[in-house]
Write a structure and sequence with these properties.
alpha/beta, Rossmann fold, 7 strands, seven-stranded parallel beta sheet
Length: 246
């Protein structure tokens, strides 16, 4: 059971992040949803009114703002869980990928993970039941057209997960990653056609695609006592897409 624990989820207002927030709340966790999308956070007001959710409107790429948000949340009762989910998307051919888009994706997806981890670590050390989960991707295992920056960042997060696990284990903090495959989220629906979804589904060994809730349940497992001896791993939630044969 996770009842009584406190978590921060970056990128918690939409898509997979929102599913993670809802799942943790349903398991008795008080969650700080950290996101630049204030409108998205306000749409979760029902849960906030009941004290289960604390909206933290913040750009995860802003190191000082992240530190303030994490410290303010932890001051009210500590911190046990950090989920680094925030990401920025842009797709373009490698040879012409715009510099400003590369910078923004690195600032949010990679540097933002550093900032949140740095801010959370002193609080997690005092938890006694602490864990971090980073959102990786199936894209680490396969090549995806026009996604060179995204796959590079997710590959870096896999490496960072192992490094975090090695450095933070002595502080009583477990660190793992979850690597989703193709997941139907509003953001993905905006750029993938019906044909694209059908093609993705055809590559699934299970004949289906993961839903945001499937990813959220994997996160919940990794932060639970059932996973108390698991650290430094990346758990694929991709219905077998990344190991499909030719």
């Amino acid at each position: 059971m996770l009842t009584g624990l406190r978590a921060i989820v970056t990128g918690g207002a939409n898509g997979i992040g929102r599913a993670i927030v809802s799942d943790l709340i349903g398991r008795g966790v008080q969650v700080g949803a950290l996101d630049i999308d204030g409108k998205g956070l306000r749409s979760m007001a029902g849960e906030a009114e009941e004290g289960r959710l604390v909206p933290l409107e913040c750009d995860v790429s802003d190191r000082l703002a992240v530190a303030r948000a994490v410290n303010d949340f932890a001051a009210d009762g500590g911190l046990d869980i950090l989920v680094n989910n925030a990401v920025a998307f842009h797709y373009a051919e490698l040879a012409v990928f715009p510099e400003d888009k590369i910078d923004r994706m690195l600032d949010v997806g990679l540097k933002g993970t550093f900032w949140a981890t740095q801010a959370a670590t002193p609080h997690l050390e005092r938890s006694g039941n602490a864990s971090i989960v980073n959102l990786s991707s199936m894209a680490v295992s396969i090549a995806i057209s026009t996604a060179s920056v995204y796959t590079s960042i997710k590959g870096a997060l896999d490496a960072l997960t192992r490094q975090q696990a090695a450095e933070l284990g002595a502080k009583g903090i477990r660190v793992n990653a979850v690597a989703p495959g193709s997941v139907r989220t509003p953001g993905a629906e905006a750029v993938i056609t019906d044909r694209g979804w059908a093609e993705r589904e055809s590559k699934s060994l299970l004949g289906r695609l993961a839903e945001p809730e499937d990813v959220a349940r994997a996160v919940a497992f990794l932060v639970s006592a059932d996973a108390r001896c698991i650290t430094g791993v990346s758990l694929k939630v991709d219905c077998g897409m990344s190991i499909r044969g030719a």
